[in-house]
């Protein structure tokens, strides 16, 4: 079960079961991974680290989130009106 | 001459239920005229007829009870049940607003930033005026109990003093709350936070005003010697209502002002 993260990403098909989000409604799952990717990206670029460690979150939110939500949130971020804490 | 063989009150025919119902129609259609057609006439007419109905209906009840003696113990029991059931219905009314608040605040949506208070909302500090408001209402609960005990003991002067303190505390609460409304950086249209905040606290404030009015009526009735030391249901009903208003505030304070910040 304790696979290497690289193996997990190589074998990625879609977002796997995450016990943090056990219910049918995955809004929070999408939201949390979207936030986590952007927080990770922001932290890594600030420290000059490798952004590829954030890839897992990117994969999950791309699988789960409705495209319309992602484009709206990306637009909000560009405008500076994104309500989430990144 | 025929007498009734029971102690219940067979009320004489009265026009006030009809005028009350008509005033309700005028007020509701008046609201529509105001919201959609920019006309206040019907609403004002409705509010006027409503006020007149309330004044005359309750005046008649005082005449029947205090002056004509129709409020026997069994009649008073019915009035007690009535007031209790009414207050219970008001509890359910507020339950709806608390439900709305908890529904939105326990699982805040992405549009709010996934957090409560929502991003960009800066709530009032619960340790400032809201805490003062809490102490004002709690103190008014003490003073109204003092008024009741004075009444039970036949101490007229102290009853009037304690009741006037209670009323003044109620007015103080209303003034403080009004000033707080000006202080908020958010309005009713600022996300579900603004909606739940102002609906819940707004209706509570209305109930404080209603309760204060009821207490003021009791004050004038006491001045006019309507109450005796063992028959003063109007005052008791006002006191129950006042305690209810206080309890609702405590829930509001803990849920919306304190936990919700």
From TrEMBL, chain A:
Its main location: mitochondrion. Disulfide bonds join 30-65, 40-54. CDD domains: Cyt_c_Oxidase_VIb. InterPro entries: COX6B-like (IPR048280), CX6/COA6-like_sf (IPR036549), Cyt_c_oxidase_su6B (IPR003213). One of its GO terms (cellular component) is respiratory chain complex IV. It is found in: Mitochondrion. The keyword Mitochondrion applies. Keywords: Disulfide bond, Mitochondrion. The keyword Mitochondrion applies. Component of the cytochrome c oxidase, the last enzyme in the mitochondrial electron transport chain which drives oxidative phosphorylation. Belongs to the cytochrome c oxidase subunit 6B. This is Cytochrome c oxidase subunit. It comes from Carlito syrichta (Philippine tarsier). The gene is LOC110595358.
TrEMBL record, chain B:
It is a multi-pass membrane protein. The chain crosses the membrane at residues 16-34, 40-58, 79-102, 129-147, 159-177, 197-220, 240-260. Pfam families: COX3. It catalyses: 4 Fe(II)-[cytochrome c] + O2 + 8 H(+)(in) = 4 Fe(III)-[cytochrome c] + 2 H2O + 4 H(+)(out). PROSITE patterns: COX3. Its main location: mitochondrion. The keyword Membrane applies. Belongs to the cytochrome c oxidase subunit 3 family. This is Cytochrome c oxidase subunit 3. It comes from Carlito syrichta (Philippine tarsier). The lineage of its organism: Eukaryota, Metazoa, Chordata, Craniata, Vertebrata.
């Amino acid at each position: 079960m304790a696979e290497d993260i690289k193996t997990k990403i190589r074998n990625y098909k879609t977002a796997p079961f995450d016990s943090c989000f056990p219910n049918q409604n995955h809004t929070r799952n999408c939201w949390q991974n979207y936030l986590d990717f952007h927080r990770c990206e922001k932290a890594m670029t600030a420290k000059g680290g490798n952004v590829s460690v954030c890839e897992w979150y990117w994969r999950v939110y791309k699988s789960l989130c409705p495209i319309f939500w992602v484009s709206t949130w990306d637009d909000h971020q560009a405008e500076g009106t994104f309500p989430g804490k990144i | 001459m025929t007498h009734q063989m029971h102690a219940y009150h067979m009320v004489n025919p009265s026009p006030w239920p009809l005028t009350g119902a008509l005033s309700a129609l005028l007020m509701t259609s008046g609201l529509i005229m105001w919201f959609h057609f920019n006309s206040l006439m019907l609403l004002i007419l409705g509010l006027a007829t409503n006020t007149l109905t309330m004044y005359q209906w309750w005046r008649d009840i005082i005449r029947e009870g205090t002056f004509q003696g129709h409020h026997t113990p069994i009649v008073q029991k019915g009035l007690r049940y009535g007031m209790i059931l009414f207050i219970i219905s008001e509890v359910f009314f507020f339950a709806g607003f608390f439900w709305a608040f908890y529904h939105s605040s326990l699982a805040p949506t992405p549009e709010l930033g996934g957090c409560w208070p929502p991003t960009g909302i800066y709530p009032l500090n619960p340790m400032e005026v809201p805490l003062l408001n809490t102490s004002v209402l709690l103190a008014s609960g003490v003073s109204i109990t003092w008024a009741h005990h004075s009444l039970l003991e036949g101490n007229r002067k102290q009853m009037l003093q304690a009741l006037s303190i209670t009323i003044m505390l109620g007015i103080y609460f209303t003034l403080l709350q009004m000033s707080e409304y000006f202080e908020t950086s958010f309005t009713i249209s600022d996300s579900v936070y603004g909606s739940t905040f102002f609906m819940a606290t707004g209706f509570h404030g209305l109930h404080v005003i209603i309760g204060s009015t009821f207490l003021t009526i009791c004050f004038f009735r006491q001045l006019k010697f309507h109450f005796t030391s063992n028959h003063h249901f109007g005052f008791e009903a006002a006191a129950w209502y006042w305690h209810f208003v206080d309890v609702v505030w405590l829930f509001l304070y803990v849920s919306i002002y304190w936990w919700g910040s």
